[in-house]
Amino acid sequence: MESARDLLVSLARRYAFGDVGALASGVVEDAGDIEAACEFGQRLLSLDAEDFAAEARAVPSDIRRRARACTMPQTPREQPRGALESLRPAYGLLLEVIAVRWHRRELSPMVAAVHIASEYLPLLAFEPVLGSAGDPARWPEGLTAPGSRFGVIGDRDCDHTRAEQSAVNRTLRVAGEPAEGWRAYFDRQHSQVAGALATCVADCRNPCTAMDWVEPDLRDDLALRSRVALAFAETPLVRLRHAAPVGHGFGVPSPEEVTEAWERSRTVLAKNGVGGEASGDDGFPLPGLPALFSAVANAPVAPSTLLADISTYLVKLLQP
Question: Which domain of life is it from (predicted)?
Answer without folding.
Answer: Bacteria
